[in-house]
Task: structure prediction
Amino acid sequence: MAVPDRDWPQHGRTTAEQRYSPLTQIDTHTVGRLGLAWYQDFDTFRGQEGTPLVVDGVMYVTTNWSKVEALNAATGAVLWRYDPRVPGNVAAKGCCDTVNRGAAYWEGRVYIGTFDGRLIALDARTGHQLWSVNTIPAEASLGGIRSYTIDGAPRVAKGVVMIGNGGAEFGARGFVSGFDGRTGALKWRFYTVPAPGNRPDGAASDTVLAQKAYRTWSPTGAWTRSGGGGTVWDSIVYDPQTDLVFLGVGNGSPWSYKVRSNGVGSNLFLGSIVAIRPETGEYVWHFQETPMDQWDFTASQPMMVLDLTIGGVRRHLLAQAPKNGFFYLLDAASGEFVSAIPYTFLNWADGVDPLTGRPRVVPDALWSLTGQTWMGIPGSLGGHNWAPMAYSPRTGYVYIPAQQLPEPFKSEKDFHLHAMGVNLGIDMAGLPDVPAVIAAVTSGVKGWLEAWDPVAGKVAFRVEHDTAWNGGVLATAGDLVFQGLATGGFEAYNARTGAVLYHFDAHTGIVAPPISYAVDGRQYVAVEAGWGGVFPLMGGALARYRNPGINHSRLLVFALDGHARLPAETRTGQLPTPITQTADQAQVPAGYDLYQHYCLACHGDNAVGGGVLPDLRFSGALASSDAFNAVVARGALTAYGMVGFSSVLAAQDVEKIRQFLISRAVARQAAETGKK
Ligand SMILES: O=C(O)c1cc(C(=O)O)c2c(n1)C(=O)C(=O)c1cc(C(=O)O)[nH]c1-2
Ligand SMILES: [Ca+2]
Result:
């Protein structure tokens, strides 16, 4: 069905997922007149990753904690709001904040996946709930050992609503479910990795897992308990021309290939794109980008469908720039390998087999087998993560929000699976608190907008940014490319040259992708502002380094001659609570280890907050072991997403963490005083 130029009805606007708007009112000549038309504050300071949808002048926005709102897309007037009331205690079941990347729209219904695993259909006119299903079958959670959350957007094809989930950093066995869009009845499930002992699940994946996947795993690896991973936590694309649904399958669980699969097998379908039929979930083809995953190299990054002339032949292709650093082109109908060319510097492989596309992995990169530390580029956050890329058929370029975040990979001593906290099998030692070391490591951290020529297989131009983890991208027929930045800018670039044509100070880091739409002949560009996602949560000093600002979560909508203004910045962030205690040094090293295991994922490496969730060096609760225990052990702040850890941390452990944090607070205070 043709999509009207004015609308943005699907995640990537059309089924091709190119994030290209044909609107031209805002172009290279008029963009100088761009301004903020209106904005709306969200109800949280957490991060925002959503792509709004626009259908017939109504905008459907999803926000953190899986909330939805419908707005008049011209004025911002709220038509309805929907809160699925996700319980705060599930925040700790996800790696990367309680974000949400968007809704799906189909025949007057809005579909949303919730962080606690539900799929909900709403009446698009009223916001009333039509149905709600729990997408996580009881047996999948293995008595609570495994962790499932939803933050990706559902996908609708032929009346079937499909959704996956996240959790491979904790313990999960990836699967995607298809539900009847009208009734919510389950139609099929497709598991992306086998069950221990090759047991059938009674699912659409049974045959292919038995025939192709089971023998690619060691029958006795830790995957038999942790689930193996392979979560489909973001990209699911439907191509009507081939009638195929493409699943972007994630990384292994635990990360360590040695622990997970005794260091044998390619572990299908980890790091793969799997093509299935929408109505049945029937397997059609797969392509594995990263065999033997041990770098968190997911193939879950956004995919798009492109028709390109390669070597004189017109081809219908699937394109992806996954974490592993190669830009892939596959034949959309058959999955046949076309090309894989590095879109960024990478050191884990020295190329791919030209016939099969299988990477030639550098032996030293297999850190879980060598027992040595591997300095990997890309690191686990990838050369490109979930922030969507865009394609302009006018320029022929794919615009990739690319980055470089090197990362040391080293085996954890004495790995064992545990409930709560991440299960990676990797040494969690982080950055030392030494400014020169932080500066040196940060010098390797880079982010840029890359115009990639997929036909020539090379970079056309790059726009260098100040740091990594920048926003998703929009391309328009006005020959503009829009992108929000980690450092708080919202930019428009000339799509042919990369020249900056417009800059707006958003007062906050932006990671979400912009969209464009029109109402009554006026073109708008909208983006959800709000610094967030995994990097600011766990990145610590690296995430803070060039982004010392305060987080704001709000929807920004731009148009020609817009004259709205953001309120002046009055928040100063967390107020330092003067710390008078000195840490019990004997407890600090053990407190550090516990912190890195249980707390780092949200509060940042070495207790440096990355700008979204509280930086615990400022916490008033540090002064009292009772208060600290009430929060950390007994869960006094559970409603806000800070669960109690009493099931895994004894009172002495909690006290060790407190002593470690006091030592960090004292160091921060000393550094501040030294500066004055
Ligand atoms: O393996 C998984 O199940 C899983 C889930 C998610 C998620 O659900 O957000 C992310 C990742 N992995 C991941 O590897 C990753 O880099 C990542 C970044 C983000 C984010 O929202 O910033 N989520 C996720
Ligand atoms: Ca992952």
Notes: The CA atoms of residues 2 and 14 lie 9 Å apart. The longest strand covers residues 34-41. The chain has eleven helices and 39 strands.
